[in-house]
Write a structure and sequence with these properties.
By secondary structure, the protein is mainly α. The chain folds into two domains: 183 residues, Globin-like (Orthogonal Bundle); 150 residues, Phycocyanins (Globin-like), CATH 1.10.490.20. Helices cover 78% and strands 0% of the residues. The chain has 13 helices and no strands. Helix 10 packs across helix 13 and helix 12 runs antiparallel to helix 13. The longest helix has 60 residues. The chain is globular. The N and C termini lie far apart (112 Å).
């Protein structure tokens, strides 16, 4: 091959290699560019979501005062008669103190939501403060917790109605934390637990049952729903999301009250707080005593299955007292 021919062949070969390489390089560049755009989209989506949360939280804080007043009117309309019927001193229900507590707690709940603090972490952060609020309002008359809890609950419900549709589900998780910690006497149970040695059998029984609290509550609510598919209360049908959430919380509440009695070795937590709370709220919310009895009976089955046989003896006497309190002899089927 002549030198000229070799040079021509080499140039053609280089051009061919370049032609083969160019699509590859251009494809790599295009993929890189599109990937960058996709990453940028994700950043913008995240920023938009964060801005949406911050904006939603700010708007809800702005209407917190009027929403609290609306919740107060609703609570008073529902419970004014019950407060008189139970002979609860009106001076014990301080609207200014309760409203201040409501504003303070929901402001923190909205800040946690805006700053993307998880509901679980928010629960840890707010637990002590809500425990103190609960203790303050129940110090003179434990029955006040019904009025206070309902005020908090309706404030959360009215705020949710004003929230953007896309944010309601997320916000609901934070408001549920507030609801749960007000209705459920966790700090009272913790204080009672602190008086025991770690390996005391009573404390062991509670420690064994506590992690199963939510699972047991959901199981019981599902069974009650299967037994009473057409049942409806003041808020709506039993199988609606809001009623189901409240029902799970109530079954959790019954369990924690029971374990508080086990740890305190007396029935006062149920007799002085839980029972009056139920008598005050359930008829008002159109929850039947038959439904409550069904839940209490199912609770025994679930706890017996959850605990070791040697631990049943610690909760059984308190459970039997609870069962008798809600018996047909106390609340006839027609009641």
């Amino acid at each position: 091959m002549s030198a000229e021919a070799f040079r021509a062949f080499s140039v053609a070969e280089i051009d061919f290699q370049q032609e083969r390489q160019l699509p590859s390089l251009s494809e790599i560049w295009a993929k890189k560019y599109v990937s960058h755009l996709n990453q940028r989209d994700q950043v913008l989506i995240s920023l938009t979501a964060a801005q949406t949360k911050v904006e939603a939280a700010k708007n809800l804080v702005d209407i917190l005062r009027s929403t609290s007043a609306q919740a107060w009117s609703k609570t008073e309309a529902l419970l004014a008669h019950e407060v008189r019927r139970h002979d609860i001193g009106s001076q014990l229900i301080d609207p200014w103190t309760i409203s201040k507590d409501v504003h303070q707690i929901y402001e923190q709940a909205l800040a946690a939501y805006a700053n993307q603090v998880t509901p679980q972490r928010f629960s840890v952060l707010i637990s002590k403060e809500l425990g103190a609020i609960r203790k303050k309002h129940t110090a003179i008359d434990p029955r006040i917790i019904g009025f206070v809890s309902m005020q908090f609950h309706y404030c959360g419900q009215f705020l949710l109605k004003q929230a953007p549709e896309t944010e309601k589900k997320a916000l609901q998780e934070y408001f549920k934390v507030v609801d749960d910690l007000l209705y459920i006497p966790l700090h009272r149970a913790y204080e009672a637990a602190a008086t025991y040695d770690y390996h005391h059998p009573r404390l062991e029984a509670v420690r064994m049952a506590l992690p199963a609290t939510t699972r047991i509550a959901k199981s019981i609510v599902s069974k009650v729903n299967n037994y009473c598919p057409d049942y409806a209360c003041y808020t709506g049908p039993l199988n609606s999301e809001s009623v189901r959430t409240s029902s799970v919380r109530d079954v959790e509440m019954f369990q924690i009250y029971l374990w508080t009695c086990v740890l305190e070795k007396n029935i006062s937590a149920i007799a002085q707080e839980l029972f009056p709370l139920c008598v005050m709220l359930y008829p008002t919310l159109k929850v039947s005593w038959g439904l409550v009895r069904l839940m209490v009976n199912l609770l025994d089955q679930e706890l017996t299955a959850c605990l070791k046989s040697q631990h049943v003896q610690y909760y059984e006497p308190h459970y039997q007292a609870l069962l008798r309190m809600f018996s047909p002899e106390v609340f006839p089927e027609s009641a």
